[in-house]
């Protein structure tokens, strides 16, 4: 049987990434992050799509070179079809279609959130089906029941803001630069988790809500700063620790409930916020108490990257699940 060599492209938001996978093994994973958005405090869609246009050719060339293959060795081209920013997705989709057409090879569409889940199959140990995956990012917070590489069901999700957005907006209130989530994690490690109390939202069932805690943080800071202009600077570590601990508590309460409800002992963490060290530590501690098998992706596969797109594409390639040249980007692609 000939080798399955797939080039994968990820461009859903502000990372331009390309990866090569050969027979299910990642050979390269090149990611270029767009720093231009820092000055605006968030991703600017128009600037993101322009940056993708600048980065995509060198990123793809770098991925191919690092994998030590030639363009003509590629057997299929995979790409993120959605969900994501329309302009960003269009750059990746158009490039993938053109590249595949030039090589005369098939196209593989990949759902961005499915790929985050399937990132757990890049390295050992790999989870057994079925398992529950808590997928946490700037745009999504989902509890996913993963029955197979192609059968996934959302059993719980946020009804307003994603937890990653709560982290970043909380950081903005504290005067931290974008992206602020990793900075909250950094300062939280130096603070006291129980110094301040924030409300824990308890939605019905397995769903989440993070808008309330953002509002609570805003009012808390306004009140404290009135009393002391330097309150944030003097208590930054403790504020971050208390805020982060509350968000983590909300995430893990529902995960615990889902694991009991579905009688599942294999749990996984995915998405950009899965790189949060506080969340990883708390999940490991809960896993010991609950006797779960926990699966955490390598840090490089947590944030948006093409290796996870490549892994998802590998599963599709083995089943000949291809799309034609009429395919287009879907910014609101259904799960």
User: What fraction of the residues are assigned to beta strands by DSSP?
Assistant: 15-25%
CATH homologous superfamily of the largest domain, by name? Answer: ATPase, nucleotide binding domain
How is the largest sheet built, in terms of strand order? 3-2-1-4-5
CATH architecture level-2 label of the largest domain: 2-Layer Sandwich
Number of alpha- plus pi-helical segments? 9
Portion in helices: 40-55%
> How many distinct beta strands?
10
Largest sheet: 5 strands, mixed
The low-confidence runs, each spanning 5 or more residues with pLDDT under 50, are none
Helix/sheet category = alpha/beta
Oligomeric state of the chains? single chain
- Let me know the average pLDDT: 94
- At the first level of CATH, the class of the largest domain is Alpha Beta
Radius of gyration: 20 Å
CATH topology assignment of the largest domain? Nucleotidyltransferase, domain 5
Gap between N and C termini, in Å?
A: 33 Å
Q: Summarize the helix and strand pattern as letters.
A: EEEHEHEHEEEHHHHEHEH
Integer tally of domains: 2
Shape: globular
């Amino acid at each position: 049987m000939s080798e399955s060599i797939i080039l994968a492209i990820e461009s859903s938001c502000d990372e331009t990434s390309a990866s090569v996978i050969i027979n299910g093994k990642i050979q390269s994973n090149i990611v270029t992050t767009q720093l231009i958005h820092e000055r605006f405090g968030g991703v600017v869609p128009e600037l993101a799509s322009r940056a993708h246009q600048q980065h995509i050719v060198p990123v793809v060339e770098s991925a191919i070179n690092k994998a030590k293959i030639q363009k003509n060795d590629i057997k299929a081209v995979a790409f993120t079809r959605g969900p994501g920013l329309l302009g960003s997705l269009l750059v990746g989709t158009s490039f993938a279609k053109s590249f595949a057409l030039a090589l005369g090879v098939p196209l593989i569409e990949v759902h961005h959130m499915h790929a985050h889940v399937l990132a757990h199959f890049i390295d050992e140990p790999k989870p057994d089906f079925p398992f529950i995956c808590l997928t946490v990012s700037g745009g999504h917070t989902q509890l996913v029941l993963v029955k197979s590489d192609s059968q996934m069901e959302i059993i719980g999700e946020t009804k307003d803001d994603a937890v990653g957005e709560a982290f970043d907006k909380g950081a903005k209130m504290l005067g931290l630069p974008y992206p602020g989530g990793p900075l909250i994690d950094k300062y939280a490690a130096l603070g006291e988790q129980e110094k301040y109390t924030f409300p824990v939202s308890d939605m019905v069932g397995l769903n989440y809500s993070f808008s309330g805690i953002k509002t609570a943080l805003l009012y808390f800071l306004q009140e404290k700063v009135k009393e002391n202009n330097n309150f944030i600077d003097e208590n930054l570590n403790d504020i971050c620790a208390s805020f982060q601990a509350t968000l983590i508590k909300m995430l893990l309460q529902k995960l615990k409930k889902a694991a009991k409800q579905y009688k599942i002992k294999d749990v996984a963490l995915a998405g950009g916020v899965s790189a949060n060290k506080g969340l990883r530590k708390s999940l490991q501690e809960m896993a010991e108490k609950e006797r779960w098998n926990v699966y955490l992706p390598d840090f490089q596969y947590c944030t948006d990257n093409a290796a996870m797109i490549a892994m998802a594409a590998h599963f599709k390639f083995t089943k000949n699940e291809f799309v034609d040249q009429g395919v287009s980007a879907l910014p609101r692609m259904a799960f």
